[in-house]
Specification:
The complex is a heterodimer of chains A (347) and B (333).
Chain A: E1 6-16, E2 25-36, E3 43-47, H1 54-61, E4 69-74, E5 77-78, H2 84-93, E6 94-97, H3 112-121, H4 128-141, H5 146-149, H6 159-172, E7 177-181, H7 189-206, E8 209-214, H8 217-223, E9 226-231, E10 234-240, H9 241-246, H10 251-259, H11 278-282, E11 310-311, E12 318-319, H12 331-346
Parallel strand pairs in A: 3-8, 3-9, 6-7, 7-8
Antiparallel strand pairs in A: 1-2, 1-4, 4-5, 9-10, 10-12, 11-12
Helix pairs in contact in A: 4-6, 6-7
Chain B: E1 19-30, E2 37-48, E3 52-56, H1 63-70, E4 78-87, E5 90-91, H2 97-103, E6 108-111, H3 125-137, H4 142-155, H5 172-184, E7 190-194, H6 202-219, E8 222-227, H7 230-236, E9 239-244, E10 247-253, H8 254-259, H9 264-271, E11 320-323, E12 326-328
Parallel strand pairs in B: 3-8, 3-9, 6-7, 7-8
Antiparallel strand pairs in B: 1-2, 1-4, 4-5, 9-10, 10-12, 11-12
Classes of the chains: A alpha/beta (347), B alpha/beta (333).
């Protein structure tokens, strides 16, 4: 296999408590591994609920914060050990699109300012005319025209337009990877598809990979190639998106997917969900599986050691759950899951 | 756009459901230096006893403004220009402030957007709920109040120890349930819930949705549920009203609207729901709403409508009953 574009190796990020809670530690990300291949370009989803560590991962990759342990390699080069020259190249080739399309603009400048800054900082064009051409081309990619938007102020544009401009700004630099942190969560449903479509287009035509960070499994299902589902800083399940969503294995992922409201009034929720009591949730699991307090299939051994990722089939579909430990085939537990799934399907 | 909606038969049940709330030709404007923004443009709708009405639309379409104006809580520069809000026959728009205070919370309660952040951080849960009861119903004995609050907490599925806790000790979902408990504390006839599950994780959202359903079932309270998640609407509501740029463009029982959306905007809204059941091509639409200060003549959706005709640019389509109980404002039919 050729060298991957981006590789996250055994990454751990521990936040230590502030002055009020000195000594407290929180592992926002724990022994996390991720590989994005150089070619073909892919859209990789990082999904999970709030507090699962997905934004921590984005910030780590973008270099805003540094790792407690582990490595992030870009084309084989550790990003924490880059020379200033390499660092500049890296910040150029790895771009970001953020969640809030309202906060990233300075309201006092016309929107062309964000493009001008990029052109100036990276010396993309020798003169204004060439710069304008570059900007027009980037805007065309996201279906906009310069004369319509560049002279406007941010408040004159809709959320969807602003978010598309952010993608255009990133594209201006011809990056190899765009880290998109919840790019559509603040955009209206009817305009979401457009942003996702631009991502697909950039992947197909421009060979740009995406790290799509989201809490919304349904949009991830629509556009992503691989998916990593995080639970409290660790991977619960990973693999091909379609396989994972259509046939989830980890009890947490099963619970997540079952909780997504079905847009069909004839298919009402029939099962009950209950959250465990707060004490159980707060009883911190330090060594065992972090999902233990909420897990319907929990076993004694889950408390002893955190489960590693187990291979589920010949593909790279993996789940961190002892139910899938080949060494100890707990046949009973397996049957239980199969039964439950059958019941769900029938219901 | 004045529409008289005559309906027989309650939502999803036989017989005549009585009105709890009737909104008639309500107009709400926001004053800006460049002219008034028309946030709610002559909206009429009914809510029947025991039904949940879903109000959907994109951000900025006026759904929250409509909800707030039902409680007369629109803040300046917004104002109710004209129209009626009849709650059990009383026009709230005409009430004096002190009369209004009796109606609010006693008869119509609000679960505001981001409700969990509306709790007072330095008050215990028992004091917050107790205060809302005593403000509206006068002083109660301590024992009675406690019993009532504990019953409310049980009704929304919270353990009794929450009674003495502070908001920061609760998770987002639990805070949201405290807000629901406060909304039902005085057994109102109608609850207006503005995006009650936004900003919650799916599993928690599911639990809150279930709490709302349980509350509705046990108390028989009517509800207006505002949101943009069509999936959640399908699970929770009896009827849906679709809003676009301050107008209601379609209103129908939830099954009918999902089975046969009539208005092109509703069709677009339903087509853009991402699904986890099947991977389908994305439906991409160019969309830019007109300047709400200067709505174009004719249909308000003409700039984005794929089926736009000449007539749409001249004549405003009225909201008409195109199928039994299924109203839409479109010239196509």
């Amino acid at each position: 296999m050729s060298q991957p574009l981006l590789e996250v190796r055994d990454a751990t990020k521990i936040y230590r408590g502030g002055f009020l809670r000195a000594g407290q530690q929180l592992a926002a990300l724990q022994n996390f591994n991720l590989t994005i291949p150089e070619k073909p370009a892919t859209i990789t989803a990082i999904a999970g609920e709030s507090g699962s560590g997905k934004t921590t991962l984005a910030n780590l990759i973008l270099g805003f914060i540094s790792l407690t342990s582990g490595q992030i390699l870009y084309r084989g080069q550790d990003i924490s050990a880059m020379s200033p020259q390499q660092k500049l190249q890296y910040t150029r080739q790895v771009q970001a699109v953020f969640q809030d399309p309202y906060a990233v603009y300075n309201p006092f400048y016309r929107v062309k300012h964000i493009f001008d800054l990029v052109v100036k900082n990276f010396k993309l064009a020798p003169n204004n005319h060439a710069a304008r051409e570059l900007i027009e081309e980037a805007l065309k990619m996201v279906g906009m025209r310069g004369e319509e938007v560049l002279e406007k102020y941010p408040h004159q544009l809709s959320g969807g337009q602003r978010q598309r401009m952010m993608v255009a700004r990133a594209y201006l630099l011809r990056p190899s990877l765009i880290v998109a942190d919840e790019p559509v969560s603040m955009v209206d449903a009817s305009l979401r598809a457009m942003i996702l479509d631009i991502m697909l287009k950039l992947r197909e035509q421009q060979n740009i990979s995406f790290l799509y960070i989201t809490h919304d499994l349904s949009t991830a299902y629509q556009v992503c190639d691989d998916i990593y589902i995080l639970y409290q800083g660790s991977i619960a399940e990973k693999g091909d998106t379609v396989r994972v969503i259509e046939n989830p294995k980890h009890p947490y992922v099963q619970m997540l997917i079952e909780s997504i409201p079905v847009p069909d009034p004839n298919q009402k929720w029939d099962t009950d969900v209950t959250l465990p009591s707060e004490e159980e949730l707060l009883s911190h699991v330090d060594v065992g599986c972090r999902f233990y307090p909420r897990c319907p299939h929990r076993m004694e051994r889950c408390l002893i050691k955190q489960p590693p990722l187990f291979q589920l089939d010949s593909s790279d579909h993996q789940a961190a759950c002892y139910l899938y430990d080949p060494a100890v085939p707990s046949a009973q537990a397996q049957d239980e899951i199969v039964e439950k799934q059958a019941a769900n399907k029938a219901g | 756009m004045t529409v008289t909606v005559n309906r027989t038969g309650g939502p999803g049940k036989a017989g005549v459901g009585s009105h709890v709330l009737e909104v008639r030709d309500l107009r709400v404007h926001y004053a800006t230096p460049l002219g008034d923004v028309i946030a709610v443009n002559g909206v009429s709708l009914d809510v029947y006893e025991g039904e949940t009405l879903g109000l959907v639309g994109e951000s900025g379409c006026g759904k929250s403004t409509l909800a707030m104006s039902i409680l007369r809580l629109v803040q300046p520069p917004g104002r109710i220009v004209s129209g009626q809000v009849l709650l059990l026959g009383t026009d709230l728009v005409k009430l004096s402030d002190s009369e209004l205070r009796h109606v609010r919370w006693n008869q119509v309660a609000l679960i505001p957007q981001g409700a969990m952040n509306s709790l007072n951080p330095v008050m215990r849960v028992k004091d917050q709920i107790g205060e809302s009861i005593e403000t509206h119903q006068g002083t109660r004995s301590r024992a009675e109040l406690k019993e009532r609050i504990l019953r409310l907490l049980a009704m929304v599925g919270l353990p009794s120890r929450v009674y003495t806790m502070y908001p920061h000790e609760l998770s987002g979902g639990m805070k949201q349930r405290v807000c629901i408990a406060m909304a039902i504390a005085l057994t109102p006839s109608i609850i207006v819930a503005d995006e009650p599950t936004s900003a919650l994780d799916v599993v928690v959202q599911r639990v809150i949705a279930q709490t709302l359903l349980d509350v509705k079932r046990t108390l028989g309270v009517s509800m207006i549920l505002i949101g943009h998640d069509m999936g959640l609407m399908a699970q929770l509501v009896d009827r849906i009203a679709v809003m676009y740029a301050g107008n209601i463009v379609e209103i129908a029982p939830v099954r009918d609207i999902f089975a046969e959306p009539l208005h092109p905007y509703t069709q677009l809204l339903l087509a853009s729901i991402p699904s986890v059941k099947e991977r389908k091509p994305l439906v991409v639409t160019e969309g830019l709403t007109h300047d709400l200060r200067r709505p174009p003549p004719g249909c308000i959706f003409q700039l984005r409508c794929p089926f736009v005709m000449d007539k749409c640019r001249e004549v405003v389509p009225p909201l008409r009953e195109l199928r039994p109980n299924h109203f839409a404002a479109c010239h196509l039919y």
